[in-house]
Write a structure and sequence with these properties.
This protein has 285 residues and is mostly helical. It is built from 12 helices and no strands.
Length: 285
């Protein structure tokens, strides 16, 4: 009996803990994670006319709409030398990664409660799979962005100075993904308890888009109200993304530190809430 007990790797029980985060257990389910990512990717494009080409069609259409409305009609500036197509496309690509990851994670209990109630596995696997799926979509759109950038450099005489800020691009993508995952985990608990708040989440996300430097550069915001935009932890990340990739952006070390601290604190708070309330929500749903 004692020999059997020594071989036990996990103990499944009804109790929940605030700090119940086991990386080794998560890693042991890497096959499940891979299958969920594959399922999420395929289910979105099966029986569709364009298939995975929708990943590229959406940002392209949005970019041309932004160029026409904001740049041509309204006359919003995008920078001293940067082509509007590059400015808007870069913001849309990163925003899609954040918004789609956040929305998918925020609905994780509504969309998977049948699975959660029947089979045991670390529930964090599902939101991780959703975020990774959106990361692969982001990479595909990023490749298209780089091709467009190469076109402007080769044929439109767009000069860009490559600096060490390019090395910060992985930091930008990782931090953006972690913020979307963290906020999504938090709202997955809230919206599971109070379903009418789902509408509030959708509206808030749309408002957040206008508070993020997507359709305008941070340098064009008046200094007396710029602090409002800088309260958004995504602002410095979007500016750094353009600075590293396109050579233009307004970033300070304090803003980046603020974004990093926000990401770390929000992640740990989200994990605490998700672990403690996740098991209880199964009975409620």
């Amino acid at each position: 009996m004692s020999g059997t007990e020594n071989k036990l790797k996990w103990v499944i029980q009804s109790k929940s803990s605030y700090f119940d985060f086991n990386f080794n257990e998560l890693f042991s389910y890497y096959n499940l994670l891979f299958r969920l990512v594959r399922k999420e990717f395929l289910i979105n494009y099966q029986q569709t006319l364009l298939g995975p080409l929708w990943i590229l069609f959406q940002p392209i259409l949005t970019t041309f709409t932004y160029v026409f409305i904001f740049n041509k009609v309204i006359g919003v500036g995008v920078g001293s030398k940067m082509p509007p197509v590059l400015f808007y496309f870069s913001g849309i690509v990163l925003w899609n990664f954040f918004s789609e990851s956040f929305l998918a994670t925020s609905k994780v209990f509504h969309n998977n409660f049948h699975l959660f109630s029947k089979v045991y596995f670390p529930r964090l696997i599902v939101p991780l799979a959703l975020t990774i799926t959106q990361f692969f979509r982001f990479l595909i759109q990023l490749v298209l962005l780089i091709l467009i950038l190469a076109y402007f450099i080769l044929f439109k005489d767009f000069n860009i100075t490559f600096t060490w800020y390019m090395l910060m691009l992985p930091f930008v993508v990782f931090t953006t993904g972690m913020i979307s995952l963290s906020i999504g985990l938090f709202f997955s608990i809230i919206t599971a308890k109070y379903r009418d708040l789902t509408n509030f989440v959708d509206i808030s996300l749309r408002l957040l888009m206008f508070g993020t430097p997507i359709i305008y550069p941070l340098s064009l915001v008046k200094e007396n109200i710029r602090w409002i935009v800088e309260l958004n932890p995504l602002s410095s990340l979007f500016e750094l993304f353009r600075l590293g990739l396109l050579g233009e952006g307004t970033v300070s070390p304090y803003q980046l530190l603020y974004s990093l601290v926000f990401m770390i604190l929000s992640f740990f708070m989200a994990i605490i809430l998700f672990n403690k309330q996740g098991a209880k929500l199964i009975d409620v749903l």
